Amino acid sequence: RASMELTFLAIKPDGVQCGLMGSSIKCEKKGFRLVTMHVHRGSEELLKQHHIDLKDHPFYPGLVTYMSSGPVVTVVWEGLNVVKTGRVMLGETNPADSKPGTIHGDFCIQVGRNIIHCSDSVKSAEREISLWFKSKELIELSTFLFWWVWV
Question: Pfam families, from UniProt (predicted)?
Fold first, then answer.
């Protein structure tokens, strides 16, 4: 059986406000399974913890303010190599460097407002998922697609 992993994806306030939620979570087309999804208004403390690895950068306070400026949609996906594939589907952090067909390449203009976040490693996905979701919210579901695509 193929080894499955989870990844965390967050549609940022600008993506929510621009109505890009559906366009930004198109992972089902790739064969990944939706595990859970919520609309949140992240607290300042939660957002500081989520972005703790960036705390020494000068843009950190503005990032926390921006991320707390409106609701975010948080999603957990499951699949084979879902972390790496999710990052490829996102495109480069800087939208100007992203290829057409990627989320950043198609929908974003600047780094500071790039509508979506996706985990960059399995370890960071585990940490981010545990920050935003309780374990009982992670739904286990086996579909026919799983057996046709991944096994």
Answer: NDK (PF00334)
